[in-house]
Amino acid sequence: MASTTSTTAPGAEGVLQFQPLQSTVDSTFWMELANNKLEKYRLSEEPCTLQGYYTPARSSAVSAPLQLTSTSLALDGDAPSAAPGGPQPYIAWGSLYNVNTLDRFKSFDRERIMAKASEEIWCDIRSGAACANPALLNRFVVYTFADLKRYSFYYWFAFPALVPPAPMRAAQIGSLDAALGADLAAAVVQASESWRGACTDATPAPAWLVWLPGTNRSSEITASPLTDWAALQERDGEVILAFCDPCNLPSNPGWPLRNLLLLAAAQWGSRAVRVVCAREKAGRLDPTFSLMVDAVLPEVPAAWPAAADHPPSQEVEDPAAVPAMAVPKTLGWEVNARGRMGPRCVDLGPTMDPTQLATQAVDLNLKLMRWRVLPELNTEMLAATKCLLLGSGTLGCAVARTLQGWGFRHITMVDNGKVSYSNPVRQSLFEFEDCKNGGRPKAEAAAERLKAIFPGVKAAGEQLHIPMPGHNVSPQEEGAVMRDVARLEELVLEHDAVFMLMDTRESRWLPTVLCAHHEKIGINCALGFDGYVVMRHGHGLSKSTDDVAEGVGEASCSSAPRLGCYFCNDVVAPIDSTRDRTLDQQCTVTRPGLAPIAGALAVELLVTLLHHPQGDKAAADTASSEASPESPLGLVPHQIRGSIAHLNQLLIHGPAFKQCTACSPQVVQEWRTDSQRLVMRACNEPKYLEDLTGLTAMHTEVDSAMEAWGDEDENSDEDDF
């Protein structure tokens, strides 16, 4: 609270009282502190440097506070950062101690950190550093606890003021123009304004000297830095101390004058000094609002040490380890909103935009993982990775929710079906209302639910039919089918990773071709009744047509062969698997716990792959592999095959098949030559893909070899007989 006295009458001396400095913290500071806590400080409680900003008092109704904003933490070494908008403010240097728990905040040894700040101020006074940089006199301390789950911040400020051995007294206090006369006061203000404007530093010094000529009244009044004190004493005239005064009271100076007067007594040996308390109106120093104080100072005893062994601004690992030094007693802990000694608390949760609050909370778990367990986790990369989910059913819902848990922000759902009454209990993104009136489109409903769960996600739903080998396309349907093909290719191009989560095997064929052609990450996930397979496709083939034609791309930049895709184990082309199916064969009949397990593994495989330095070209790890130090999240397998009936899991791998009907160079080359011909013939001609890739010739060779082997057996039997 402000301390007030009446104006001291001329010739009388009263104890000089100062209005305490008050703090104000912008919400942007707390947001920056929260971000720094998660990204930089983590579990560290080491002090960090702050910049506070204040101005001269500009209104008779209120004093100017010390302000913290987001720029207060944006420091590069000791270089001043950008100040808040408006007239250039003055800088006060501070130390921030951010602790990890509320109990630690309550028991924090605040007297120790106050003693450290006081020691630094005293050292700067005795060494003369404060004359060169008066901002060092205005150091402050704040210790905080950030409750990032609730966005509540506890804090306590201190503005250390060294207590002299005897009270400072005021012989007289009054307005500047009343003390000097209107003309002389205006000249003092003009000299101060000129000096401030001529300062080349990023911010002006908060204290300076004004020289008034003595007998030679024709000399010009000048302002200069505190380092000129000794030189000005040699000149004929009067030297006046001036400072930026944040106080608005008519009878009291502001808190920064306390340490400044102690400097005058300790460094210059002054016992009396005149002080201009510079205040502003309309953006300029005002002689009627500014004060003149005739201060009487005590003698500073020589017994106070210079503390030269502890240089200014030196930080220590543990403030509690700093020994108590024989420095002047210190005051300055700020009172709380009730006017009592104690900390303050600001709760930003209710005032924050709910979407922004959700965004911060969603990322909290991921950023906490980096504190102790996974410092290499790249949350920004995950948030920027765009995922395309082909299939919005049981697997699609499971994968989408796990992607959200990992902080992915771009998710596109694709499906051609509608929500049925059997879906909501197994598919977590749907509800009963989605089933009514024939059912909502699955992709659209799933995307809306993702945004309802977390509004910060960029989710979209697309109803799309994917052409499939073995599913005939009539001439009348060809145009619509090729439009779907073109749209699917656009979606693959727009995304970084493609999840294949459909019900049928053949529906995965075209996305596999597109991933191989456009070199996109392909993740395949398929379910049986009690088993599952999760796999990543081998990296895409080179986009050079000649390279593909020659088979280039079958080996990665390492010695490991290119890994196979979902179809690389097949020796026949995919066919229509829905024809002549019973009800249990038409539906995905699987144990309910299988999809969440497989969906989670599919996402974990993608996250691990994204963090591997070789990306989708990473060699396949097996169960016997040791986690590479290059892979911060552990093993990066090719295939994960598991069974919940036996509660087991296998990591297997296989190279790309040169005659694969989906990812082989022959198929990719045909797509690049004539995509429409490839799709139409694959749909309408069951043997086309086998002929294209050489599987037909391979079957013929195998049949011939088997016949020859049989003939040899028959001849051998005859000979034996």
UniProtKB/TrEMBL annotation:
Question: Where does it reside?
Answer: Cytoplasm; Preautophagosomal structure
Q: Which GO terms describe its cellular component?
A: phagophore assembly site
A molecular function GO annotation: Atg8 activating enzyme activity
Q: Report if keyword RNA-binding is assigned.
A: no
Domain THIF-type NAD/FAD binding fold as annotated: residue spans: 369-614
Segments spanning the bilayer are none
Supply the InterPro entries for this chain.
Atg7 (IPR006285), Atg7_N (IPR032197), Atg7_N_1 (IPR042522), Atg7_N_2 (IPR042523), ThiF/MoeB/HesA (IPR045886), ThiF_NAD_FAD-bd (IPR000594), Ubiquitin-activating_enz (IPR035985)
**Keyword Protein transport on entry:** yes
Q: Name one Pfam family in it.
A: ATG7_N
Q: Which family does it belong to?
A: Belongs to the ATG7 family.
Subunit text? Homodimer.
The identity of this protein, by name, is Ubiquitin-like modifier-activating enzyme ATG7
Annotated organism of origin? Cymbomonas tetramitiformis
